[in-house]
Amino acid sequence: MPEQPEQQAPPVQRLRVRYAKRGRLRFTSHRDFSRAFERAVFRARVPMAYSSGFNPHPRISYAGAAPTGSASEAEYLEIALKEVVDPAAIHALLDEALPPGLDVLEVVVSPGGSLADRLEASRWALDLTPVGAGRPELEAAVAAFLAAAEVTVERMTKKGLRQMDCRAAVVHLEVVDSDRAGAVRLDLLLRHGVPAIRPDDVLRGLAQVSGLDAGGAPLFTRLAQGPLVDDAVGDPLTSEG
């Protein structure tokens, strides 16, 4: 009779973590981050709960990861533990174990339910240096985009070239002041969906309706991610809003 895999005890506590990707670490892929985080919980001796089976792995649930190359102040994951611990202690341990640029911002006890279901929208700052255009031209491009009933763009996916309406996902889009010298900022609120619309899709949509050239190397920063509440992004770490 084949040997049966060891059955692990169920978790006794779940913690939700908000972390940031900053500076050069924004180029860390989701796979690279997940490896770094698993090494961090091992080094920090976090009392992780493990999956059952022949190859047990720490119970970590990732949700709503930003595209590689984007900075973020609002990335989220959930960990399952075999002991009840103080979230503040885990915060300190994880932040010390992760490299600078992957920074733990908040750790709370999970209120239950699905974390992924709480991530309905994202607020982004898009810092651009448009070619041959200033703020008035960018504002005109935004107005043309928002006035369109549909803006279809193409993106290469794992399943091939796909067409998607980037206008439908945009809840709010506005030109605002940037804190980067020589840049103009777009304040963008995106509703999550399938397929997921990304900030670069919106820039392609702006170019399509107005001919805008956003310039080289725009910086995308996710400022918030969570439930969509009255055209704003709520806090996903609470049980409400």
Q: How does the SSE layout of this entry go?
A:
Elements: E1 13-21, H1 30-43, E2 60-63, E3 71-81, H2 87-97, E4 102-109, H3 115-118, E5 121-128, H4 135-147, E6 152-157, E7 160-165, E8 170-176, E9 184-191, H5 199-210, E10 219-226, E11 228-229, E12 232-233
Parallel strand pairs: 3-10
Antiparallel strand pairs: 1-3, 1-4, 2-3, 5-9, 5-10, 6-7, 8-9, 11-12
Helix pairs in contact: 4-5
Low-confidence stretches: none
Report how far apart the termini are. 52 Å
SSE topology string = EHEEHEHEHEEEEHEEE
Based on CA atoms alone, the radius of gyration comes out at 20 Å
| Mean pLDDT score | 92
Question: Quick one: overall form?
Answer: elongated
Q: What percent of residues are in strands?
A: 25-35%
Query: What proportion of the residues is helical, as a percent range?
Result: 10-25%
Number of strands: 12
Category by helix and strand content: alpha+beta
Write structural notes for this entry.
The chain contains 5 helices and 12 strands. It has 241 residues and is of the alpha+beta class. Strands 1, 2, 3, 4, 5, 8, 9 and 10 form an 8-stranded mixed β-sheet that branches. Helix 4 (135-147) packs across helix 5. The longest helix has 14 residues, at 30-43. The termini are far apart.
